Amino acid sequence: MIENKVAIITGGANGIGLATSLLFNNLGAKVIVLDNATNLKSIKNKILKKGVNIDFYKVDTSKIHLVKNKMRIIEKKYNKIDILVLNAAICPFKEFLKIDEKIFDDVVNTNQKGSFFLAQHVSKIMVKKKIRGKIVFLSSVSSIFGGSLQAHYCATKGAINQIMKSMAISLGKYNINVNAILPGTVITNLNRKQLEKNIKLKKYFINRTPLKRLISPDEIAKAILFLSSEMSSGVNGECLVVDGGMTINFQ
Ligand SMILES: NC(=O)c1ccc[n+]([C@@H]2O[C@H](COP(=O)([O-])OP(=O)(O)OC[C@H]3O[C@@H](n4cnc5c(N)ncnc54)[C@H](O)[C@@H]3O)[C@@H](O)[C@H]2O)c1
User: With CB atoms 3.0 to 4.6 Å apart as the test, which of 53, 70, 156, 247 could cross-link to 112 if both were Cys?
Assistant: First the structure.
């Protein structure tokens, strides 16, 4: 499916990104992770000890010039990029009335601006090398619905959907597919504290989901795999919700 493909996964050191990196690696892809986790070295050592051969690059993807520098090294070393998964994001939960400019800028620069310019940079490489590329954005059901603690985050995810659709239109003629996954609630470092603090909220999400459980990072990874492989060759500009049905249930 993706054997011998070169895949860049941002935020691949934790949560959904890590599940995707491991799945892609298992299926024979060369996985390159871009992540700025403070404990990246220990995560990397733990993974390498298991015999998993993933390459980690420490970089803050919200800093465009730093990413471009790393990309020069990566392009030289691997020569091609077949798959790009734009997964790195932050969600500092805050009441709308308390969101200051610094938090707003951090969220926009990481979730939206960083993803935009990395996607543009990699697209240029795919076009130049005539690669039938696959680009997958991690959006969210929060791109459709609001949240009292997520006004900044929801805005960036809405923007991601529109960036994705515009890219899909621009890049279709180069045989590059661009799509987005919209996960529902998946327990990861992004929301663990929030959901542990508010057990009622967690139960609400579970009860609202027709499958009566939350979706796992592995289940999101499988949907990312679909959009990263030729299995989805006819899918372009699509927002695929992966939430166990949580957001279709109004009861
Ligand atoms: N967990 C959920 O419920 C949920 C729901 C909907 C959408 N999503 C989306 O899925 C994606 C993955 O989320 P997750 O839950 O796995 O989060 P996570 O916090 O577990 O992992 C995010 C990873 O991104 C990295 N990262 C953050 N900012 C970065 C930066 N500036 N530069 C480089 N790396 C950076 C982190 O170090 C971390 O490894 C995100 O785009 C998120 O918005 C998650």
Answer: 156
Q: In the chain, what are the domain boundaries?
A: 6-248
From 111, 188, 206, the mutation candidate for ligand 1 (largest count of ligand atoms within 8 A of CB) is 188
139 counts as catalytic: yes
Chain segment 39-61, per-residue pLDDT in tens: 999 999 999 999 899 999 999 99
Over 90: is that where the pLDDT of 186 sits? yes
8-state DSSP, 113: I
Question: How far is ligand 1, taken at its centre, from the CA of residue 112, in Å?
Answer: 12
Q: Helical H runs in 8-150? A: 15-26, 40-49, 64-78, 101-107, 115-128
Residue reference for tokens 């919209």: 182
CB 246 within 8 A of CB 185: yes
Q: Tell me the pLDDT tens digit for each residue of 211-223.
A: 999 999 999 999 9
Q: What is the DSSP string of 124-185?
A: HHHHHTT---EEEEE--GGGTS--TT-HHHHHHHHHHHHHHHHHHHHHGGGT-EEEEEEE--
Calculate how far, in angstroms, residue 68's C-alpha sits from the geometric centre of ligand 1. Answer: 20
Closest ligand 1 atom number to CA of residue 181:
7
Q: CA distances (Å), 48 to each of 20, 21, 217, in order? A: 16, 13, 20
- Taking the CA of residue 16 as reference, the ligand 1 atom at the shortest distance is 16
pLDDT of amino acid 251: 76
Residues 6-248, CATH architecture: 3-Layer(aba) Sandwich (3.40)
Point out which residues pair with 180 in neighbouring strands. Answer: 137, 239
Give the pLDDT mean for 81-105.
98
pLDDT digits (tens, 9 = 90+) for 190-213: 999 999 999 999 999 999 999 999
**204 catalytic per annotation:** no
